[in-house]
Amino acid sequence: MLAGGFLAPPANAQIVNTLRRWSDAEPGWDGDVEARFAIASGNTDYLEFAGGASLQLVSERHRVRGFTNAAVRRASGEKVAESLLVHLRHNYRLTPALSTLIFLQHSSDPFRRIESRTLAGAGTRIDIVREEVWEGSIGVSAMFEGETFTDDPTGDRENEFRGSYFVSAVGNVTETLRLDLSAFYQPRFADWEDDRLFIASSIRVDVVGELDLVVRFDFQRESRPPAGVEPTDLRLSTGLVFDF
Question: Bridge-partner residues for 29, per DSSP?
């Protein structure tokens, strides 16, 4: 988000990690709602409202999930940032290892040029490993993507079709080390050199008692970003987590 009233840079088509927002729930409903408020004054002066919600329904063969995030920031009485994301997906378990995959996503972020971005796709998910201490899966789907941009005077919608492939692995490497990995690859069908790659990974290490060290690394690359946008984004973070 913006920290002031400057023009936002051109937006690249960031991939949203939708694999880690859900618990491996028992049959039935579960979900959560979150609201956040932030205020700053002095060298930085702004108000920010943000929130989100998720909902999941699990039955013997069906799994329906959805979540939404929204945020608004105002500085000096003017709106300087605004974003919305809504994601829905459905899985139907055909066999213990094979499920269908259908998803729909809509987002907007006018301060990063995105008037509207809509994704819709369908494919399959294969659970390669599903054990008590380790889970691994892959997914293959075809995806429609439609976008409109705030700075396009024609208002024309840009439509294209992409593949969407993911790999997911999470589990205990040792008794004191846990690995979490998600990776997405999205090439454009009409030109496979036009692709996107996103990797989110974390390592959690037991330090002492209930205190853990968490190291996170995110990598995102778009082969053909808009003018003024770097093709690669990296993020590395470390922190301590105490469970009780």
Answer: 57
Among 188, 183, 177, 171, which Cα is nearest to 215's? 177
What pLDDT is recorded for position 1?
Answer: 29
**DSSP letter assigned to residue 110:** G
| Token duo for residue 62 | 């069906």
Domain that holds residue 152: 90-242
Tokens of 222: 């778009």
Contacts of 37 (CB under 8 A, 6+ apart): 47, 48, 49, 50
67 falls within a domain: no
Residue 102 within any structural domain of the chain: yes
- For the cut 80, the answer to whether the pLDDT of residue 6 exceeds it is no
- pLDDT value at position 118? 95
Q: CA 219 to CA 233: how far, in whole Å? A: 6
Measure the CA angle with vertex 88, ends 83 and 90; round to 5°. 165
- Across the chain, mean pLDDT equals 87
Using CA atoms, how far apart are residues 213 and 203, in angstroms rounded to an integer? 8
- Cα separation, 90 vs 106, in Å, equals 16
Classify the C-alpha dihedral 168-173-175-181 as positive or negative. negative
Measure the N-to-C terminal CA separation of the chain; round to a whole number of Å.
32
Q: Side chain identity at 201, as an amino acid letter? A: S
